[in-house]
Design goal:
Strands 6-7-8-3-9-10 form a 6-stranded mixed beta sheet, sandwiched between helices. By secondary structure, the protein is of the alpha/beta class. Helices cover 32% and strands 26% of the residues. The radius of gyration is 18 Å and the shape is globular. It has a domain of 73 residues.
Amino acid sequence: MIQLQDIVKRYDAGDNTVFALRGVNLTIEDGEFVAIIGASGSGKSTMMNILGCLDQPTTGTYILDGMRVSELSDDELALVRNQAIGFVFQNYNLLPRMPAIRQVELPLIYRGTPNRLQLAADALQAVGLGERMFHKPTEMSGGQQQRVAIARALITSPSLILADEATGNLDSKTSLEIMALFQHLNQERNITVIYVTHEPDIADHATRIIQMRDGSVLSDVRNENRLWAADELRELGSSTPSLGSLEAPSAAGGQE
């Protein structure tokens, strides 16, 4: 469970004070699919950074799975980011000269996990990139690169995935394919998904929509008319992407 209690994020620039977040209170239950929507400057990206333990609020309390994040050391925060949270960004954040299988393997290197290449191969198979695992980003489309990023986010079996404008650079059909993957992860694996976007049609794929404005929560509603990306793809005559099963990475046994 995620709890934000009176979260304020303030930036002081000389005599000026800018509030990115103004006393946000929010609870997100395990297994929810939440879209955070708002225009540029609404505070949604600042919220994402705090939720991902990439930044700390100026005041207020962030509780993640019973842990008060502000009380964690830098090493403990790094462990939370590596084990509990998967990140997916708009620009993929892939290394240009590294093949897909090595990109996906990276989070496991920091954990010292054995059988890393096999686990990375399984993750790429799961997102439909089994035939592309040795391709570099420059040899893949934008949608394929984002699938690599999703596989990398999945490799540590996180309980929470944070996606920041993950379809922002993709065409409509590819965006639906990516949203279908997120919906599958949420529905079939009970992974909590928090998706930041400025696009209402993308937010409509979530089960809950939080709208932000000027650093505050403007509305927080259940999405009774949720869109299903797989159904939209079928209407377009496109095949629906599917994920296979991924085993949680083991901490012992075997070799790379």
